């Protein structure tokens, strides 16, 4: 992002001037912790902020923003030269990615790490003033900033009179000063600091001979922290006071920090030696070994830090480099590593746990590390993160009452946490919001990582790693975050704002159903499957029963005849409605207590089967021929006449109120009743199924009331009306809508059936949410500008979308994604058949898609497998899986 975009992102996160209440900036993508990725023009940053505030920007902040804008522009120019160098090195080494090039540099890991530091061109990803360098001119930036092309010559000041105080080791023993003949204790200082702050401000100490500038220098390179420099000739680090304004403050070093650095390092080292937690003990600390300062001064202060830990075959990668763009591939370095690993989801989980375990472990002991990107490194062996590394304790928070051992802190030290929540806040902000959120954001962008799944998984681990009190804090719905831009408007104030915490979201699997999620993952590849959940069917039935106030419910098994679903219907519904001899046989075998028999073209065999049924059975007769057939077969049970009557209802398939092959005409009812009675059949009522998939509750309730009234009129003086079956038709749209049961119940409130049994025959409404179709992506390609996802399976397994001419929505369940990830595209989903009509979805926007992903079509349990045509081309059928 450019600086104007960073300002918009910060204003959004902090809701500066009510910015979050306005429309989101064009092209912006919101991530975890209300962090915004804005892809906008490189505008004047001050004017951008003025438009947000509706007022002038304070002079001090305008200067900082202009400095940041100029500094970033210069840095990018220098970084472009560096990027060309990296790309050339990769080409000569035959490395296809920067990650592969790094892996080949383990013989000189210190240099590799130092060079990787320079990738952090953008600086602090959450701070609009990340490249502010007030106090430096362009020449200074070229000479001393991160992208410097030659080493900085660190100066040494000899303490000839012993006026400096010290903590830890003597600087003369530091590795970076190896080989220098130094008779007096020394203080390393930054050359710019020496020229502009120390010599002008402390001239009398030098004129008196108490301090002396040595001729010897130490070559070193700036890290992402700028004032921390890495050795050139010898490994190690020096943190030096630097009296310029970087990001939000002047970067001197307090004497308290110089005092505490070695002490905290010693404490942490001791904790690691005695710690029994194997994962935590893998954590490496870059210890501060030496500190020196002039009492009362923040300008004559320094810390010495040990070299990076050495491990055969590994390279220590700064976390700031992981989020930077690789000059070899154009992806983030993190994405290169994750893709190289073969399983990006597993890679980021492993990385996160490497850091989360020790950081949370130490926080529970009262030590809150500042575990943001700039203070963190990770040892990589090939694509694998091996162990985490932490450096710099100046921003840590220590809660003394919680510490297991004694530690003295100087009075007023900012390290001293007044409560354990300050420790937790430090960890939550630096580790989760700054560190992990940045990595997840680039992996979402580059590889289509499912960020929500990552945070849900991490939340489960955090819950397992922490005490109830810690867990309540880290998983709270909202978390405090530094209002970095607001704080620049009010210098010197510590201001926080609350942001949404992705760790607090319901920790649900990607498919919002734990058993379904596991079932999809367990399918053999390439997968095509129907998955059914009888518990979902039963729950839906229970809700419908409540809305229908005790009236009879027969399940229309034509919607879904899966044996598990049918068994649930036989157990929990009043009976099962069948439309063929095969369905009658299956319903009886499932244990149905009662049956109804429908269908417009019953045969002699059907009549004979009905006559032989030993269960309560009502036959829905559709014509005079069927009445004669039933009589000839000796059927003695109740008969209901199916009638095509009334007006058409809203829905997808009209059964009555229009010419259809179902039932008899309304004006033929009386002759049909007379015929049935002459044949000796027992006419008990009517079957008045009118429509399929009605979503209008008021219209459906009116249909029920009209049907009862009509049935009483039609039966008057002819037979005793005991049965009014209003059919099914309760809507459950494949896109997820369903008829409003509350509105339906209200529409039926107080209904008077006149003593007749009121019967409903739902099928789709009960079965739709209890079934999912799963199809694995076997190819993704573009043809004439359209992105196609070709799946194992298709309309021969799931015919409804093609039959109805609609696009069935799906959810992407990510697979291993070893091939190209297609990000933020409209995709058409087609099957494996040799016909252009094998389309499950004509166009749906997806955040990410790749071969191996599984598309899960929800609300598909009704009229799915039952109406499909699996014989075409002879492809293998789908798996049949039952969960719940």
Automatic annotation (TrEMBL):
Pfam name, any one: FhuF
InterPro entries for this protein: Aerobactin_biosyn_IucA/IucC_N (IPR007310), Ala_racemase/Decarboxylase_C (IPR009006), De-COase2_N (IPR022644), IucA/IucC-like_C (IPR022770), LucA/IucC-like (IPR037455), Orn/DAP/Arg_de-COase (IPR000183), PLP-binding_barrel (IPR029066)
Residues in Aerobactin siderophore biosynthesis IucA/IucC N-terminal domain copies: 116-323
Pathway: Siderophore biosynthesis
Limits of the Aerobactin siderophore biosynthesis IucA/IucC-like C-terminal domain: 345-493
Domain Orn/DAP/Arg decarboxylase 2 N-terminal, residue spans: 538-768
Family stated for the protein in its record: Belongs to the IucA/IucC family.
PANTHER family: L-2,3-DIAMINOPROPANOATE--CITRATE LIGASE (PTHR34384:SF5)
Name recorded for this polypeptide: IucA/IucC family protein
Organism of provenance: Glycomyces rhizosphaerae
